[in-house]
Amino acid sequence: MVTVSENLSAISAEYSEIARRPLESDQCALIVVDIQEKLLPPIFQKDQLVSNSKLLIRAASVLKIPAVISTQYSKGLGQTVPEIASLLLPETEAIDKDRFSCFGSDSFCAVLKRLPGNRNTLLLCGMESHICVVQTALAALREGYIVHVASDALSSRTEWNWKVGLERMRAAGAVISSTEMMIYELMRSSSSPAFKEMLPHLKG
Predict the structure, then answer these.
(1) Spatial contact of 49 and 155, defined as CB atoms under 8 Å apart
(2) Where does 21-45 have alpha helices with state H?
(3) Which residues sit opposite 147 in a β-bridge?
(4) Given this model, what pLDDT does residue 6 score?
(5) Residue 156: partners with Cβ closer than 8 Å, 6 or more residues away
(6) Which residues contact 46 (CB under 8 A, 6 or more apart)?
(7) Can you tell me whether residue 156 is helix, strand or coil?
(8) What is the pTM of this model?
(9) What per-residue confidence (pLDDT) applies to 188?
(10) Pairing of strands 28-33, 67-72
(11) What pLDDT is recorded for position 18?
(12) Is-contact 120 145, C-beta < 8 A?
């Protein structure tokens, strides 16, 4: 009979193995969750969220990582904020949803499946940490994706809910990371063309 402690040890070992794997740009997709005009104003540390999300989108563009953008009921909550939308490729349209999890949208799931290559790792940023981001992360994990969360590129209306969301995702098996950790890991070297292209933005 397997004990609770043995189960926890196995889960911990699996999490450690996933966390040890280096990010590979050709296996990643960036998911930008619900950074919208009417949702953003009350968000805790919203300027940091927007600034770091912009960095991730720039890095994704440089590294040829596809970005998938969502909005939650845009008719009532507004479009993606201009600072984010302006960095996206012209053909990138936000996928509007009514479910909190992006995986509750058939359109989102279809776009994800059509991405080129073996995109088995999702990089998450956006809001809110304890609602749409956490539900998207949990669904992604259930679907077999590896999930890395940019902890400083997401937030909630309160600091408490931002942190609780992060704790829930970590407990479920998502790797809690940061914007610079992700970007530098993906670029690998200061001699890479990607690093040289990103450096002016990383100095800010």
Answers:
(1) yes
(2) none
(3) 122
(4) 55
(5) 43, 44, 127, 128, 129, 130, 131, 162, 165
(6) 40, 155
(7) coil
(8) 0.92
(9) 92
(10) parallel
(11) 84
(12) yes
Tokens describing residue 28: 């990643």
Question: In the prediction, which pLDDT does 20 show?
Answer: 87
Please report, for residues 34, 43, 95, 180, 202, the alpha-carbon distance to residue 62 in angstroms, rounded to integers and kept in the order given: 23, 28, 22, 15, 13
Q: What is the pLDDT of residues 95-112, one digit of tens each?
A: 999 999 999 999 999 999
- How many Cβ atoms sit within 10 Å of the Cβ of residue 156? 25
Which of 140, 129, 126 has the alpha carbon at shortest distance from 166? Answer: 129
Q: Can you list the alpha helix ranges (DSSP code H) found in the chain? A: 4-20, 46-62, 74-77, 82-85, 106-114, 134-142, 159-172, 179-187, 193-202
Q: Which residue has the tokens 């909550």?
A: 77
Could you state, in chain order, the average pLDDT of each consecutive group of 10 residues for the chain (204 residues)? 56 78 95 97 98 97 96 95 89 91 97 94 98 98 97 98 97 96 94 90 78
Mean pLDDT of the chain: 92
| Contact predicate 95/132, CB 8 Å | no
Question: Other C-beta atoms within 10 Å of 108: how many?
Answer: 22
* Residues recognised as catalytic: 34, 97, 132
What's the number of CA atoms in the CB half-sphere (13 Å) around residue 77?
Answer: 17
* DSSP string for residues in 84-117: HHTTS-TT---EEESSSSGGG-HHHHHHHHHSSS
Strands 121-127 and 175-177: unpaired
